[in-house]
């Protein structure tokens, strides 16, 4: 059922997320190449340029390094917070490593975590970064400040060893923030931007992009499978539940069926932006805007779907009894809960169905529900008209591909679907055994010499492992 307090909290979270999920690119691709890669449209000049650059860098790694270039793949278990509001994973920073729970956000490109001196918006129950406790800390002596719609995170820009899912970047820059507004709900104490460097507020190479560009991955892809808890079985969902998985360097083929449909990014890689080409609701095709208003940022850091207000009007017009929300629900629409809303979205390939469960964001009284499509502010996310968040992403397996820069979707497998709504302990923070370690390049991520090291095994961060694998260098 529902309670009004919960509804407001949820509404607040959604607003915050809509606001914060500002930055965020990502990519996917995978090992699915043998399975049926769909026919691609002709490559653009940009595609070829990106391919050429990646090829050059991969070769530089291959032949410029010492004896071996170890390509790897890694997996990080995700936690689902507050019935699909936030999906977070775990990373480790410093020597010895400290574990942080971080929002995985393809809608931004900076990494930041709470600083030990954070005095605003951080929970002191959660991990924070203390420069004095890490032997590999470096002060980049620049302020860091990221603004996400109505949210903000600010502090200093540092660099240190950052590890995740078996990968390590030994001088990854990150914001150590002393002030955050609107984002952190315990136990989360940071955010990992999975978008492209071109939209990084710090201008520094994102963790994932350093790994991809240096050829650290077996395949140049990141894969997401996220779970659904909202309104399943009357919702006995706990605040934290298993959230699915995030992979780098490979795609877990047991989580999807059929082929992955890749679509090229609309513009120069920044946000992970695709054209939204077709949307149907209750069997009717809604006419969509063209040009930049049709651009959709695929954003794991947003829980709902944001779109241009005029489009939302056309969408909700297909649901008898719907009306624009007022008060706290300004920007949202209400509709009769007894309507099963069937909706599909296409980005140029197949039309992907969104389950009626996900369309129904919440119920506010016995007969009235609120839809998951809200009016986003124009001009956010690089001018994208649409923000495609969890409401859509829970329905597909998603791939964020580095090269060629594209986003792919596939149908979820029975295995993946069977994880929805299953109550269980949230995963503990792990970084896995560090198999591959690289050094960040300054500026443009041009090639550098990289020495790959295989590190000691260090399982759970909570157990602690004093590794500092890696090390590299020029
Ligand atoms: C912090 O931890 C204390 C003791 O475990 C707990 O009572 C409190 O609710 C926690 N605060 C937050 C914000 O999680
Ligand atoms: C980092 O550098 C800035 C600017 O030089 C300075 O204000 C700050 O105190 C330094 N922080 C640490 C932890 O060294
Ligand atoms: C792939 O997903 C399945 C189903 O969750 C899981 O059992 C398996 O361990 C995963 N494989 C890898 C390599 O992560
Ligand atoms: C929605 O889809 C379900 C299942 O396919 C179907 O039974 C129902 O009639 C559809 N409702 C509308 C309004 O199209
Ligand atoms: C939904 O409920 C309203 C009353 O709350 C009723 O008028 C309407 O006919 C119902 N629609 C369906 C499809 O059951
Ligand atoms: C439910 O809320 C809607 C929107 O606030 C309102 O119009 C409607 O009268 C309410 N219905 C009931 C049964 O309280
Ligand atoms: C990482 O180290 C390399 C090599 O020492 C250096 O060129 C680069 O600027 C460093 N990057 C950061 C973010 O510290």
Automatic annotation (TrEMBL):
Domain of life: Eukaryota
InterPro entries: Aspartic_peptidase_A1, Aspartic_peptidase_AS, Pepsin-like_dom, PEPTIDASE_A1, Peptidase_aspartic_dom_sf
UniProt-listed Pfam families: Asp (PF00026)
Gene Ontology biological process terms from the UniProt entry: proteolysis
Signal peptide interval: 1-21
Gene Ontology MF terms in the entry: aspartic-type endopeptidase activity
UniProt-annotated catalytic positions: 105, 299
Transmembrane segments: 450-473
Keyword Membrane: yes
Record's keyword annotation contains Transmembrane helix: yes
Domain Peptidase A1: 87-410
Keywords: Aspartyl protease, Hydrolase, Membrane, Protease, Signal, Transmembrane, Transmembrane helix
Family, per entry: Belongs to the peptidase A1 family.
Name listed for the protein in its UniProt record: Acid protease
């Amino acid at each position: 059922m529902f309670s009004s307090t919960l509804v407001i909290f949820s509404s607040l979270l959604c607003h915050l997320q809509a606001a914060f999920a500002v930055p965020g690119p990502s990519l996917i691709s995978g090992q699915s190449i043998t399975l049926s890669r769909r026919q691609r449209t002709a490559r653009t000049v940009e595609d070829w340029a990106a391919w050429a650059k990646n090829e050059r860098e991969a070769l530089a790694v291959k032949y410029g390094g010492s004896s071996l270039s170890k390509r790897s793949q890694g997996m990080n278990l995700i936690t689902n917070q507050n019935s699909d509001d936030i999906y977070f994973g775990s990373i480790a920073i410093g020597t010895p490593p400290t574990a942080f729970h971080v929002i995985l956000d393809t809608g931004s490109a900076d990494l930041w975590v709470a600083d030990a001196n954070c005095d605003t918006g951080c929970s002191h129950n959660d991990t924070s970064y203390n420069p004095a406790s890490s032997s590999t800390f470096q002060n980049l002596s620049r302020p860091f400040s990221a603004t996400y719609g109505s949210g903000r995170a600010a502090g200093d820009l540092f660099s240190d060893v950052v590890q995740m899912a078996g990968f390590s970047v030994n001088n990854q820059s990150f914001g150590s923030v002393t002030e955050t507004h609107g984002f952190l709900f315990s136990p989360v104490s940071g955010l990992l931007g999975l978008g492209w460097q071109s939209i990084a507020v710090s201008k520094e190479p994102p963790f994932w992009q350093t790994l991809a560009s240096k050829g650290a991955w077996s395949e140049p892809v990141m894969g997401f499978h996220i779970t659904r808890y909202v309104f399943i079985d009357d919702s006995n969902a706990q605040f934290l539940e298993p959230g699915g998985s995030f992979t780098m360097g490979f795609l877990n083929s047991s989580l999807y069926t059929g082929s992955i449909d890749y679509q090229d990014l609309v513009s120069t890689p920044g946000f992970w932006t695709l054209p939204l080409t077709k949307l149907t609701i209750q069997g009717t095709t809604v006419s969509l805007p063209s040009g930049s208003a049709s651009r959709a940022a695929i954003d794991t850091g947003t829980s709902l779907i944001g779109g241009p207000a005029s489009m939302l009007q056309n969408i909700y017009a297909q649901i008898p009894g719907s009306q624009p929300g007022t008060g706290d629900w300004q920007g949202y629409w209400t509709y009769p809960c007894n309507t099963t809303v069937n909706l599909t979205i296409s980005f140029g390939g197949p039309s992907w169905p969104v389950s009626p469960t996900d369309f129904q964001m919440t119920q506010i009284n016995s007969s009235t529900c609120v839809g998951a499509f809200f009016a986003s502010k124009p001009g956010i996310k690089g001018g994208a008209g649409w923000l495609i968040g969890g409401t859509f992403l829970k329905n597909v397996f998603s791939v964020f591909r580095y090269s060629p820069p594209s986003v792919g979707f596939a149908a979820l497998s029975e295995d993946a679907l069977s994880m929805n709504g299953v109550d269980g302990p949230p995963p503990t923070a792990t970084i896995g055994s560090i198999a591959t370690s690289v050094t960040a390049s300054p500026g443009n991520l041009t090639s550098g010499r990289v020495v790959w090291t295989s590190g000691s095994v260090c399982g759970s961060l909570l157990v602690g492992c004093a590794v500092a694998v890696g090390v590299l260098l020029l």
